[in-house]
Amino acid sequence: MAVSFKLSATIAFFVGHTFLGLGSSAKFDELFHPAWANDHFINEGDILKLKLDNFSGAGFSSKRKYLFGKVSMQIKLVEGDSAGTVTAYYMSSDGPYHNEFDFEFLGNTTGEPYLVQTNLYVNGVGNREQRMNLWFDPTKDFHSYSVLWNQRQVVFLVDETPIRVHTNMEHKGIPFPKDQAMGVYSSIWNADDWATRGGLVKTDWSHAPFIASYKGFEIDACECPVSVSADEIADKCKSSGEKRFWWDEPTMSELSLHQSHQLVWVRANHLVYDYCSDTARFPVMPVECEHHRH
């Protein structure tokens, strides 16, 4: 059965559904646990803070793994001079042929915009980076960052606005992530060898500690026990007969007209790098780029 940990964002995305998967926000320790550097966690009521200093960063992971659904959390990014730092929020399966959906927030010098890098791995192959700036300052307040995932598409959303869509094009021989359960992870760490201007700007530790803040942890997805096989997972998390999941409904198979317009606006005004346009890295355009129109 679907985990019941979500309400408002699901309703915003799919008004009026009455299928398995409806829930509400949960406390951090209901869904997650610290993965490393427990002493760099700060709990302030409903807000969790991760600290990066010149000794360590910190990270957490979900207690369970999921196939299909929606994952959201509200994050307030490092204020001030955050050059060299990365706050990562992602879903990933295990193993060398893993699937992964990434949000990576790349710090910058004071006054410069944060860059949000998204990436997607399928069967262990990534190199699908896109970068954009945002239409707000993500260090001043909390904003919602989400991944919607079903058999038809993977959608990256910021405050319920789609910023990237990866469509299932298996009919064209392009692999799609649909049979590996994923955990949910987040961390803050030092990446000044590449994060800011390709590594030219280093972390200024005089500004440490660097703090990323979290709240509003939401997972509305199909929970998959570790013992379940890949075939069983796929059957368990698909609608069949009277078992209906909201993520399998026809309205979830593609963006609405309004969402499509939002995506076009975001990419026209905020996209600063797209691997599909990088002929230096890819003299031959990646196959999926020939078919994706967003």
Task: Report a brief summary of the structure.
The chain is mostly beta strands and 294 residues long. 12% of the residues lie in helices and 35% in strands.
Commentary on this structure:
The chain is mostly beta strands and 294 residues long. The chain has one domain (28-224, 244-288): Jelly Rolls. The protein contains 5 helices and 15 strands. The chain has helices at 8-13, 28-31, 230-236, 257-270, 287-291, and strands spanning 32-36, 41-44, 47-52, 58-62, 65-76, 85-92, 100-106, 115-121, 130-132, 143-149, 153-158, 161-167, 183-190, 210-224, 271-274. Strands 1-4-13-6-7-8-9-15 form an 8-stranded antiparallel sheet. Strand 7 (100-106) and strand 8 (115-121) form a beta hairpin. It is globular. The model is unreliable at 1-24 (pLDDT under 50).
Roughly what percent helix? 10-25%
* Biggest sheet details: 8 strands, antiparallel
Query: In whole angstroms, how far apart are the ends?
Result: 33 Å
Largest beta sheet: strand ordering: 1-4-13-6-7-8-9-15
Radius of gyration: 19 Å
The pLDDT mean sits at 88
Structural category is mainly beta
Write the element-wise H/E pattern from the N-terminal end onward. Answer: HHEEEEEEEEEEEEEEHHEH
Helix count from the secondary structure assignment: 5
Shape: globular
Low-confidence stretches: 1-24
CATH topology: Jelly Rolls
> Strand content of the residues, in percent?
35-45%
How many individual β-strands? 15
Signal peptide: 1-25
EC number: 2.4.1.207
InterPro entries: Beta-glucanase-like, Beta-glucanase/XTH, ConA-like_dom_sf, XET_C, XTH
Protein name: Xyloglucan endotransglucosylase/hydrolase
